[in-house]
Amino acid sequence: MAPVNAIRLTVARFCWFDVATPLQILAECSVFHALTSRNDPIARDDHCLPVHRIDMSPAQPHVVIIGGGFGGLATAKALAGAPVRVTLIDRRNHHLFQPLLYQVATAALNPSDIAYPIRAALRKQRNVRVLLAEARHIDVAARKVVLDDGELAFDYLVVATGATHSYFGNDWAALAPGLKSVEDALRIRKRVFLAYEAAEREADPAKQRDWLTFVVVGGGPTGVELAGALGEIGLHTLSNDFRSIDPTAVRVLLVEGRDRVLSTYPAKLSAAAVASLQQRQVEVLTNARVTAITADGATVKTAQGETWIGARTVLWAAGVAGSPLGATLGVPVDNAGRVIVEPDLSIAGHRNVFVIGDLAKAADLGAGKPADAIVPGVAQGALQGGQHVGGLIRREVASGVNAANAPRPAFRYRDKGSMATIGRASAVVATKRVAKHGLLAWLLWWVVHVMFMVGFKNRIVVVFHWAWSWLTFQRGARLITGDVGQLPAVHWLQADGTAAAPPALDAVTLPTSHDSVAP
């Protein structure tokens, strides 16, 4: 029975709940080699058995980590085996791979494909406890975190709660949802596919046009990825699914306030992104600002004046603000709510409190960087920040050095490049030495994102979904769930169910770059 149990254990770990890397996968394969031996090492290997206890001593320093994203998990993992007690707090029970969240919003992936249970990710780390709770306030002087239903004392605190949407003082959240959580993605997915359903019911061609018009505000990576996917949904995914409308008449407008999209990328990649977007029926408006949003559309202001765009779906990707928890630290924050941190990522006056990831405004001290350069709000910044802080705490605790007096190394961000996908077989990749776009860049984007996902099972599922989408031009998660709300009344169906054929929707003619925006 021992070999059978070993096979079951290996399969379960290899396929489901292991945080696997290529080296770990190779290590797992050695178990099959062990089956040829008389002495089965699986029964004696504590590493292969579930960990049901926590190795914590009250005398050990208590490290509290708020947030189970890239930064929080990286910090916790950097403290593996250290003589500390670690408590990781998150109001969600899962780690979310945010770079692929737009694919959930556009029905390419399911939420479970890009989320992984935090407890499963840390289950082998005996000095970590995970608490499902929401941090409401931080009292740095008393060294405690106030939760939604209690308090938690700390010796070291790492705040990695990320960022939220910023509408620049406008009350547009309900009219133009942003994309930061699974709930946001499902809300957007519902809105996008309901728009086509509403257009199918609508008999007025002008109103049909509004339902098939999508406005994306913000020309950064998220906005570009959303706009490209929205174009492909109409041109490919739904092209043959409706009878009264032509989904390929989809119109997508990407509104960017700067002079080009992907402004942090080289200019040639911005131009390549625009060309690729235009192939997907996306009209790019630069040097443009949205000044009003209603349930029926948006007002866009350009150098030529203000133009009303009829659109029943407006999506927000224009601005972010630091998590509100950062304001409770009592230290300076910038206009976006990000906490201004010291070179070691601690906050002023409290060397035992650190802020990392999107919530931190940290100086980028890399060679050749401008004096005012800051660490970008990307996954790599959070990962590297978590590794830096975790290693710093580990060294201080192990050496017994007084943290109040000891010098600390500054955090130095290593820029590994940026990438964004526009759609099928099209992406842009920029590093210090390389600036590529097209199919090769898309394949590189694909590989990198799969490698950085948490969970071997998630990687396999995502690869399968992408391969299937590549072959079929389809998206498998086109579900509309929950209350659909009020849709246009059906006036063109006769009593026997036959159609009274509403006027056909005219093909959309996108304006050239020299034309004004058509309402």
Compute the gyration radius: what is it?
25 Å
Overall pLDDT metric: 84
User: Could you list the spans in which at least 5 consecutive residues all have pLDDT below 50?
Assistant: 1-54, 507-519
| Order of neighbouring strands in the sheet with most strands | 5-2-1-9-21-20
**What's the total helix number?**
12
Shape: elongated
Helix content: 25-40%
Q: Major sheet: size, sense and barrel closure?
A: 6 strands, mixed
Tell me the structural class: alpha/beta
Structural account:
The chain has 519 residues and is of the alpha/beta class. Helix content is 29%, strand content 21%. It contains twelve helices and 25 strands. It has helices at 2-15, 22-34, 70-78, 101-105, 118-121, 182-201, 205-211, 221-237, 267-279, 379-399, 439-451, 456-472; strands at residues 62-66, 85-90, 94-96, 115-117, 128-132, 135-139, 144-147, 150-153, 156-159, 163-165, 213-217, 251-255, 282-285, 289-294, 297-302, 305-310, 313-316, 320-322, 339-340, 346-347, 350-355, 360-361, 418-423, 426-430, 435-438. The strands form eight sheets. The protein has a six-stranded mixed β-sheet, covered by helices on one side. α1 (2-15) packs antiparallel against α2 (22-34), α3 (70-78) packs parallel to α10 and α6 (182-201) runs antiparallel to α7. The chain is elongated, with a radius of gyration of 25 Å. The N and C termini lie far apart (72 Å).
